[in-house]
Specification:
The protein is an alpha/beta fold. It has a domain of 189 residues: Nucleotidyltransferase, domain 5, CATH 3.30.420. Helices cover 35% and strands 23% of the residues. The chain is built from 11 helices and 14 strands. Strands 8, 9, 10, 11, 12, 13 and 14 form a 7-stranded mixed beta sheet that branches. Helix 6 runs antiparallel to helix 8.
């Protein structure tokens, strides 16, 4: 069975499974050299025909239209690859984050803690641009495909018509009623606990502070984490801001980890890239097994989508076979490699 997962948000990516083995997994940016690429991964799709000419199931996430999925199928067909069945799910962002980390961890069961800047973005009001973005989720996961959602946090904010948030507008005071929040909760989830608030959650907040300091909207968070080390005793306001938001993130990480009931915790979502926060969790819970999604960015959505579908459909009990060297086949010959080593004095 060949299952193809495709992520169409930032860090667009492709993951191909042959039964429970990941045979191909790559970020489009690695091929087209456009960092944080958010587009149909045409160059990645080109390699699918090297592995199979039939896709049993195609799962896409964050397709902006039916036409995007049709374009993907047409691209595969033109390369000689037939797609038997296709499905798109734009609301399973955090589920796929959790699934990717869980299946790579090889834990039999675990609490999957997903802390993100913005996951699936839902319409909160039909009449304006007020949306609600899922920012934190906790799933209790068990093999082969049980993901019981125990907690979700949604941040309500202002977005444009394309569901892109504005750094300045997000912090504008928005009034929402208790009835609106109750109706939204009932519409989006039936798990045990849901927080819906206009208070900015930590992932968004970290990005906003990074933007305020002067770092780019995408990728600036890592620079903020590095700068935070200089803020505890320093006088530069940027370093102080970085230090304060880093400590706030670490505190929130511990609070959310305390909500996890399993002896094993899987960390995923964009905030799992914060190694200082991860270290605090490990230090605070020394007796728990901690696994961190090695991809963690939205690129992992492609893998999570494919793996979740495979295990849910087949009920396979065998662990996911995965290694980090599953990109395009390397066709470089030894003379060319030797030439590069001489040229760059490697």
């Amino acid at each position: 069975m060949y299952t193809l997962g495709i992520n169409l948000s930032h860090h667009s990516s492709v993951a191909l499974l042959k039964d429970n083995q990941v045979v191909f997994f790559v970020l489009e940016e690695r091929l087209n050299r456009k960092k944080y690429c958010k587009a149909i991964p045409f160059k990645s799709l080109h390699f699918i025909q090297k592995f199979t000419n039939t896709i049993d199931v195609l799962i896409t996430c964050h397709a902006d239209s039916k036409q995007s999925v049709e374009t993907i199928i047409k691209t595969l067909n033109n390369a000689g690859v037939t797609v038997k069945r296709a499905t798109n799910n734009n609301t399973a962002h955090h589920l796929y984050h959790a699934a990717a980390g869980f299946y790579m961890s090889h834990y039999e069961q675990a609490s999957c803690l997903v802390v993100d800047g913005a996951g699936s973005i839902r319409t909160f009001r039909q009449s304006d641009n007020v949306r609600a973005s899922e920012t934190t989720s906790i799933f209790e996961a068990r093999y082969p495909a049980i993901f019981e959602c125990k907690y979700k946090n949604f941040t309500v904010g202002l977005y444009d018509s394309n569901f892109n948030f504005n750094m300045e507008d997000l912090s504008v005071n928005i009034e929402v009623t208790d009835d609106e929040i109750a109706a939204f909760k009932q519409k989006v989830t039936k798990n045990n606990r849901v927080d819906v608030s206009t208070d900015t959650d930590i992932g968004f907040k970290y990005t906003i502070v990074s933007h305020k300091i002067g770092f780019p909207k995408m990728g600036g968070e890592g620079k903020t984490m590095g700068l935070s080390a200089y803020g505890s005793q320093g006088s530069d306001w940027r370093a102080i801001e970085a230090y304060q938001i880093q400590k706030e993130l670490e505190k929130k990480f511990v609070e959310r980890a305390e909500m996890c009931s399993s002896d094993s915790i899987v960390l995923s979502g964009g905030c799992a890239l914060n190694i200082l926060g991860n270290s605090v969790i490990k230090k605070t819970f020394p007796n728990k097994n901690i696994y961190i999604d090695p991809v963690a960015t939205d690129a992992t959505i492609a893998l999570g989508a494919a793996a979740h579908y495979f295990y849910k459909t087949t009920r396979c009990q065998d662990k996911l076979i995965f290694n980090p060297y599953v990109g395009p086949p390397n066709e470089l010959n030894k003379p060319f490699i030797y030439e590069l080593t001489r040229k760059y004095s490697i």
